[in-house]
Structure prediction request, 128 residues.
Amino acid sequence: MCEAAEARDQVQELLSAHRPAIGEISMIDALLVTSELVTNAQRHGDGLSGFSARIVADRLEVTVADRSRRQPATAVGRETFAVGGYGWPMIQQLTDCVIIIPTSGGKAITVSIPLTFASPGPLMSSPV
Prediction:
């Protein structure tokens, strides 16, 4: 896998197949976090070296590995409206756990995204 779109497709397929159905906001959050992590690995991490996604209980766990040991950066402390550095705070806001592990070839970032489930549709009433 080498593109953010492919990673999003994989996550969307995984979440869409889940029963009970994943709520729309959780789906959007998961796709946004996935896209940011993969794009950051490509742009700032010397390329994507690994990707995985799995559902664990009521959470989506996404792991993205890249070829750089450099830690993610934010726009905090830079000039106002500087380019870049806004995705990492967003990732931290939309996840409930972020783990960065150094690897022999760079680093792996694993995030946990809370999932909510779609409420069932209205019950059909039978005529009396």
Q: What stands out?
A: The mean pLDDT is 89. The two ends are 56 Å apart (CA to CA). The first helix runs from residue 4 to 16.
